[in-house]
Amino acid sequence: MLRIAVLVSGSGSNLQAIIDEIEKGSLNCEIKYVISDSEKAYGLERAKNHGIETIALDRKIYKGKVSDEILNLINGQVDLIVLAGYLSILNGEILRVFRNKIINIHPSLIPSFSGAGMYGIKVHEAAVKKGVKYSGCTVHFVNEEVDGGEILLQEVVPVFVEDTAETLQKRILVEEHKLLPKAIKLISDKKVKIENGKCYISK
Ligand code: GRF
Hints:
GO terms for molecular function: phosphoribosylglycinamide formyltransferase activity. It catalyses: N(1)-(5-phospho-beta-D-ribosyl)glycinamide + (6R)-10-formyltetrahydrofolate = N(2)-formyl-N(1)-(5-phospho-beta-D-ribosyl)glycinamide + (6S)-5,6,7,8-tetrahydrofolate + H(+). By secondary structure, the protein is of the alpha/beta class. 35% of the residues lie in helices and 26% in strands. It has 2 domains: 98 residues, Formyl transferase, N-terminal domain (Rossmann fold); 100 residues, Formyl transferase, N-terminal domain (Rossmann fold). Helix 1 crosses helix 7 and helix 6 packs across helix 7. The longest helix has 24 residues. It binds 5-O-phosphono-beta-D-ribofuranosylamine.
C-alpha cells in the first residue's frame, strides 16, 4: 500500500478530501503523517480527528531547515509526499531523495498564474484581473523550480465576468478536491511514468 505524508499550512480541505476517499475505500493508501510548517494549521486538527500522526515544524523556529527536518523524520517511511496547501518552498536534499515522489496542487492552469509569490488568493486575484475565461487547477511533480515540475493532471474551471477572487477560489476548490485524490490514485496504481519533462498516464 502506498504510504504518504501530506504537508499542509492552512485549512487542509484538500487533506480532508484525501482522508474521505481513503475512508470510502476508493483510495488504497495510508497517510502516515500530516506535517505542517505552522502549529495553527487547521489541517493538523483534521488529521488528529482521524487518528493520523501529526508533526508541526514552526517555520519561524526551523527557518531554512524545515525541508531537512521533514526529510529526517520521514525518510524510508513514506513513498510519496503530497503538498496540499503547503506554503513553504521545499528545498535541498529532500528534492533529490524524493525525486519524482512529491506532488503539489496549484489553483490555476500552470504555467498561468504560477511561480514564486503566486499562492493562495493571489492566484485568483491575478486570474480575475487578467479577465481569463478559464482557470482551473493543476497537480504537478515538485522539483527545484517553483511550480515547474511535470504536469500530472489539470482540470478546467470557467471564469465569469462577475467573479471575485473569492468566488473563483471557491469554484476551483471543488475541483481540487477531486483532482488531488485522483492523482494519488494514479500513482498508487503505478500508472504514471515521467519522461522528457512530461507525464505519461497508462490506461
Ligand atoms: C488550495 O487552493 C491549493 O491549491 C493551494 O492552497 C489551497 C489550500 O487549501 N496550494 P486547503 O488548505 O487544502 O483548504
